[in-house]
Specification:
Elongation Factor Tu (Ef-tu), domain 3; 2 domains; 3-stranded antiparallel beta sheet; HlyD family efflux transporter periplasmic adaptor subunit; UPF0194_transport; coiled coil; HH_YbhG-like
């Protein structure tokens, strides 16, 4: 009879202990690496693939090659435009040719001769007009022709003066700006052409190659995803209870599911805003449901652990 109350008490204690353990806050997450994504600079076909998924590569190692023909043509066109702009600037700086100035002087001399002839004809008609020996309309036409000839002289003088003074400083400045713009466009095309040879920016491991040989990825699409760094990190979600106890720089222990070994880590980031359920929608005990994204740096001893493995974080105070 005494053994039965003991069994009941033991079972009750185990249930209470299990309930306490179940209520204990846990920080769960996955094992991750820093990732580098290499986007497609242009929408061109993949003509060569030099690596495979899971391969370890050094910094600067070739990964993929995109088709070069169109970008090379665009670079040649941009370089030709830059050359044209430089030649146009040289022409502006050199100023008018001597032949053009000589032509302008000859035009001025011709206009002056015509003006003298028109003035003389008008001078001859004036006394005849006063004597009514010629029609008044003929005198008016002679006067108009004389004035028109004088205007043509002024036009020729202005054209000659413009050539003699040379190119305006504002025109030279515009030419210099056009050269700078054309050179910049050529450099842009050169950089784009260089980017068509996709290389590893850092040493790491190829995690994913979303597109295969012959595919044409859109601009900005990831051509390759790399895992980089010397060691992985734990990406976890802290419940409210643990969030209040941990801060950046604290040391914690990380355990993978199914393993007893713990790996030392240090909290490197904790988000200030909760990832799930905003606080203003919670009251009372509901605030315990808040979760905060955190990252925990691990040492090199964790470098061989599988990416994406589920894990649990325990602070040193819980050890």
């Amino acid at each position: 009879m005494r053994s039965e109350p003991r069994s009941v008490a033991l079972a009750t204690a185990m249930l209470v202990l299990a309930a306490c353990r179940a209520d204990a806050p846990q920080a769960l997450g996955t094992l991750e690496w820093d990732r580098v994504t290499l986007p497609a600079p242009v929408a061109e076909k993949i003509v060569r693939v030099d690596v495979r998924e899971g391969q370890q590569v050094a910094a600067g190692a070739p990964l993929l090659q995109l088709e070069l023909t169109r970008t090379q043509s665009q670079l040649v066109a941009a370089q030709a435009q830059a050359t044209q702009s430089r030649e146009a600037l040289a022409e502006l700086r050199a100023g008018p040719r001597g032949e053009a100035i000589a032509q302008a002087r000859a035009s001025l001399a011709a206009a002056q001769a015509q003006a003298r002839d028109a003035d003389a004809y008008y001078a001859r008609l004036q006394p005849l007009g006063r004597q009514r020996l010629v029609a008044a309309s003929e005198v008016d036409r002679a006067r108009a022709a004389s004035q028109s000839a004088q205007a043509q002289v002024r036009v020729a003088q202005a054209a000659l003066l413009e050539l003699e003074r040379g190119t305006r400083a504002e025109q030279v400045a515009q030419g210099e700006a056009a050269v700078a713009a054309a050179d910049a466009q050529a450099r842009v095309q050169a950089v784009t052409l260089e980017k068509l040879d996709i290389v590893a920016p850092r040493a790491g491991r190829i995690d994913s190659l979303p597109y295969k040989l012959g595919d044409q990825a859109p601009v900005g699409a990831p051509l390759a995803v790399m895992l980089v760094g010397e060691a992985p990190y734990a990406r976890v979600y802290l419940p409210q209870a643990l969030r209040n106890r941990l801060k950046v720089g604290d040391t914690v222990q990380v355990r993978l599911d199914g393993q007893q070994k713990a790996y030392a880590g240090r909290v490197r980031m904790i988000r200030s805003e909760p990832s799930f359920t905003p606080y203003f929608a919670l009251t009372g005990q509901d605030a315990e449901r808040l979760s905060y994204l955190a990252e925990i740096s691990l040492g090199k001893e964790a470098a061989g652990l599988p990416v994406g493995a589920p894990l649990q974080v325990v602070s040193d105070g819980d050890e």
